[in-house]
User: What shape does this take?
Amino acid sequence: QVLLQESGPGLVKPSGTLSLTCSVSDDSIRNYYWSWIRQPPGKGLEWIGCIYYSGITKYNPSLKSRVTISVDTSKNQFSLRLTSVTAADTAVYYCARREESFDIWGLGTMVTVSS
Amino acid sequence: QPVVTQPPSASGTPGQRVTISCSGTSSNIGSRHVDWYQQVPGTAPKLLIYGNSQRPSGVPDRFSGSKSGTSASLAISGLQSEDEAVYYCATWENSLNGPVFGGGTKLTVL
Assistant: This one.
């Protein structure tokens, strides 16, 4: 069973850049779409965007101007970069594998935007 | 405001059958399949139902999904205390060209 693990700073200053990495436990990164999803405290799930190993990306239009998702197949990793963050970006950030559904999720990592 | 809507809460007693609804439009549920996720507090969501009614390996057959028109439902029979969780429906939104989640339904086992 493939495992996903998010990593990155848990605290980001307002107007700064949030950067997270998701490590995939095997080389299946070449076979699926890989997504970032977030969940503000006490709220629901929001899809941020996804990437295919070839570099093809799709982003949620509500975040598109601030989001970049990239992939490094040599390291079996994909990454999220979110710029100009505000308190509204405080959330648990999950990485997930998507085929027709999100079938495998990471444990999630809490990111707080605060000075 | 989510483009697919769920009731915020549902409840049942052990052994009972409960259903959770998910309502959308022709640009999402009406033309796409629906998935369901279970999120126990403090943990990551877990895929419960995919492709409207298919169960991943390891999901008990107490859980079942269905879709009709622009709505979908998750049914849980033989309710157990461990089923207490938040349940999210998800589908593809054509206008977004991406997946969308319902707002979630918190299930309480009384």
Notes: The mean pLDDT of chain B is 96. Strands of chain B lie at 9-12, 18-23, 34-39, 46-49, 63-68, 71-76, 85-93, 98-101, 105-109. The radius of gyration of chain B is 13 Å. Chain B is about 0% helix and 45% strand.
